[in-house]
Amino acid sequence: MIIQNIMTDRLILIPVTLQMTTLLLCDNRTEIEHIGIQMSEHWPTPDTKDILPMVHETLKRHGAPSGFEFWMILCKDNNMVIGDIGFHGKPDKNGEVEVGFGLVREVWNKGYGYEALKGIVDWIKMQEGIKTLKADCLIDNVASRRILEKIGLEEIYRNDEYIFWKSNVKDLLV
C-alpha cells in the first residue's frame, strides 16, 4: 500500500522513505533538495537524528513506509522541512499507538504543531484497528502540553520529568 502525503491548510506531511533515511544518515541534503524539498539548517533535530537509524532499519526490512514511522512536516508555501511527526511503531495488539513530534525553533508558537498533529490524527482515524493514541512530553514543555490538551488527549500520569497522555481515538477533537 502506498502512503499518500497528508495535506493540511499550511502543511504537507510526507512519509519518510528508505531513500530519505539513507540520505539523512549521510547528511546528504543536496539530494533531498534535488527532489524539491527545502532543508532547514536546523532539521533534522537531535531527537530526529536519534531515531533515524531505527527507522532506517525498519524501512530496510519492510521496503515502503507504513505510515507508522515518521513524517516530515513541510510548509506548503516554500516546501521547507520545519519538523517531523510520527509514531513509536505500528499499533500494538490493543490498537494503541504513540505519537511524537518536534519542530525547529524558528516556527514555534505559530500553530504548526497542532496543525500537524491534527493531520496525523485525521490519518489514524482512517486506519483499521487503531483505538487509542498515547503521547508524552516533558513537564516544562508548555507548548506541547497545550497542543496535546487541545487535540483531546488526557493526562494519565506524570513523574518528575514527563507527563503521559492517552485517549480513545474516537474522542479526539478533530
Give a description of the structure.
The chain is α+β, with helices and mostly antiparallel strands and 174 residues long. It is 32% helix and 29% strand. The protein has 5 helices and 9 strands. Strands 1, 2, 3, 4, 5, 6, 7, 8 and 9 form a 9-stranded mixed sheet that branches. The chain is globular, with a radius of gyration of 15 Å. The model has no long low-confidence stretch (mean pLDDT 94).
Supply the key terms:
globular, 9-stranded mixed sheet, alpha+beta, 174 residues, 32% helix, 5 helices, single chain
Secondary structure elements and pairings:
Layout: E1 6-7, E2 11-15, H1 18-25, H2 29-34, E3 38-39, H3 46-62, E4 70-75, E5 80-87, E6 96-103, H4 112-125, E7 132-138, H5 142-151, E8 154-158, E9 162-168
Parallel strand pairs: 3-5, 6-7
Antiparallel strand pairs: 1-2, 2-4, 4-5, 5-6, 7-9, 8-9
Helix pairs in contact: 1-3, 4-5
What do the pLDDT scores average to? 94
User: Can you write the helix and strand succession as a string?
Assistant: EEHHEHEEEHEHEE
Relative helix content: 25-40%
Measured by DSSP, the beta-strand proportion falls in 25-35%
SS-derived structural category: alpha+beta
Number of strands: 9
Determine the N-to-C terminus distance.
Answer: 25 Å
Q: Tell me about the biggest sheet?
A: 9 strands, mixed
Oligomer: single chain
Overall outline? globular
Rg over C-alpha atoms, rounded to the nearest angstrom:
15 Å
Uncertain regions: pLDDT < 50 for 5+ in a row?
none
Question: Number of DSSP helices?
Answer: 5
